[in-house]
Amino acid sequence: MVIGGDAAGMSAASTAKRRAGDDLEVIVLERTAWTSYSACGIPYWVAGDVAGPEGLVARSPEQHRERGLDVRVGAEVTAIDTADRTVTVRSVDDGSEQALGFDQLLVATGAEPMRPDVPGSDAPGVHGVQTLDDGCRLIASLTRRAPRRAVVVGAGYIGIEMAEACKRRGLETTVIDKAAEPMGTLDPDLGRQVHEAMELMGIGVVTGTTVEAFESDADGVTGVVAGGRTYAADVVILGLGVRPRTPLARAAGLPLGAFGGVRVEPSMAVPGLDGVWAAGDCVEVWDRVREAFVYVPLGTHANKQGRIAGMNLSGGHEVFQGVVGTAVTKVCELEVARTGLTQGQADAMGHDAVSATIETTTRAGYFPGAQPMTVRLTAEPYSGRLLGAQIIGKEGSAIRIDTCATALWSRMCVQELVDLDLAYAPPFSSTWDPIQVAARSLLGELR
Q1: What confidence tens digit (pLDDT) does each residue in 335-349 have?
Q2: Which residue among 295, 348, 351, 438 is least enclosed by CB atoms within 10 Å?
Q3: Between 2.40.50.140, 3.10.560.10, 3.30.450.20, 3.50.50.60, what CATH number should domain 327-446 receive?
Q4: Which of 280, 408, 388 is nearest to 343 (CA)?
């Protein structure tokens, strides 16, 4: 029995069925009408870059059924009984309920958008963006109300992506965030580059300001009150991040961590509950750099975790090896990437960390099309162990974060990063790859 039909749930279901064949009956319970879709693509659907919602679906319920899975949409699980090994399922269409038994259970309930606890946050026209149905409601609002002004609350990954999408749709767009600069997962001076790029695009950026209320009338939201000022809005998009959707797990007695996500073993098994598993955006994961559990809801992790759960519940012996905090996005023409710890995060954790920052180009400086980029690396001063990397630049910059993520994964030191045999040709890099230029600069600081 699988609760949740998106990345983790369907990866697990498909893997288990492929391994066990007719020896295993796999039932998937999904409360919406969609399976296996890309929520990360919603901002690009809103912007008009991709078709949706069907265009964001990797595999429909019908396609999964053709592969032997019993996929039931519009089926909301309202309770789990781990002792009786049953789930209670409510039909979204008619409200009827039934109990279904299971031998193995995977909880893959995903995440839900965070809403500020202020008056009016549930007003019509205030949209969270997490599921395809959320995207459909937003698109309908943008079409039906013909808005002129959009306010995005939050300047993290989703916030800046949705702000750009709104601007490209022709809306007067303002982003409000309580942090000093956008992209709180970067050091503030690098976040300033994101701030400036958004303003150059014509997006208003209001930082260091907390939302106090949403105003509305009979037709829906009309404004956002923040910092004692009201920002007129015909549509509001929440980009405050997400939290694990775990009320069901909590009620069933599954162990939860500090972030509210289900705590699982590396096998994705729920400790203390035989035959119960959890994966995806509803779980916490082990960070190999911080050496602590964190909450990092990403489709990459969800698909890997789902595959591992599917392998193991069908008799395998796989483990999820953890994360290092790698993420990437873009706003306008500016690419933004990070992995591991920033200098600020390292300081907050008590690390005696050192950083080096370089300004360079994506290609050999003399080659046509070379674009500027900033690279910052952070490391421990005595061991020389790499702790993190941040990259901001134009096209061709962000993908280089994968080199740093690999180094973090392998607990490499800065000298080893300098010594790596990386590819070189003028259309792609300078003779010394920008990551290695930054590493050499950091070596000088460490010594």
Answers
A1: 999 999 999 999 999
A2: 348
A3: 3.50.50.60
A4: 388
Tokens 């949740």 -> residue: 4
The catalytic site residues sit at: 40
Considering the domain 2-111+242-313 in this protein, what is its CATH number? 3.50.50.60
Q: Which two tokens stand for residue 309?
A: 């759960």
Q: How many CA atoms lie within 13 A of 414 on its CB side?
A: 28
Q: Is 239 exposed, middle or buried (0-12, 13-18, 19+ CB in 10 A)?
A: buried
Residue-level pLDDT at 144: 86
Domain with CATH 3.50.50.60 in the chain: 2-111+242-313, 115-238, 327-446
pLDDT tens, position by position, 213-259: 999 999 999 999 999 999 999 999 999 999 999 999 999 999 999 99
Which residues, 6 or more positions from 118, have their beta carbon under 8 angstroms from its beta carbon?
A: 211, 212, 213, 214
d(CA 280, CA 315): 20
- What's the pLDDT tens digit per position in 389-444? 999 999 999 999 999 999 999 999 999 999 999 999 999 999 999 999 999 999 99
Is the pTM value of this prediction over 0.85? Answer: yes
